[in-house]
Predict the 3D structure of the following.
Amino acid sequence: MPSFIRRYVAALFFLVLTLALLQWGLPAAGVPAYLLPTPWQVAQSLVARRAELLGHALFTAAAVGLGLTLGALGGLALAITFVLLRLLEDALYPWVLVSQAIPAAALAPLFTIWFGDGLAPRVAMAALFAFFPVLVSAARGLRQVTPEELALMRAWGANRWAILWKLRWPAALPAIFAGLRVAAALAVVGVIVSELAGSGRGLGFVISVATYRLHMDRVFAAVVLAAGLSLSLHAILWYAERRIVFWQRQG
């Protein structure tokens, strides 16, 4: 059995075992449903409220997709700029680090005030969360070339733009995709945080309202959908990497 199939089979077995233990262990321990529902109760909530939850999940997914795209493009653009203009990197990178030290929970209400109670503040929060991992991974990947490779390109008369697109960019793609997978997971977190701070739609809104009413089955149903969204993005990026960075798979 191939190693990656064995790994996924082991993960699936662990998931099934955990769900079975929760299904039988929680009632046996006398844990009330308003504290921690069983997996079956969560599944029932998913089915009973599928139309409502699907609408909220699509709103969250739209915000994640737009925010991830904007954050990734911004991170890639700044990473390329840093590689080409080292002085600009020395001037701006410390401030980029400072921006990541600001608590996201403090920014979410501000984005809602500035951009309104619609899609825009959710997209802004997702872009903010996705920006930094793409920037760091892309900047590191673009520099993963040897002095010998650079000397050879220059000996062939390549300028810095040719070196960027024909040498640095292909070498950086594995690192960029790794950063994108991290950014995708963080973008989902960013949108949920933004929706928790104040929204009338989205999975974060469902979690907020259901928590207030102690409907824990709905809370976990929304959490399951958010996790499914994150895993779906991870799978899409993994497949795209295998198709685009084909030389790495062959190697």
Observations:
- The CA atoms of residues 29 and 49 lie 28 Å apart.
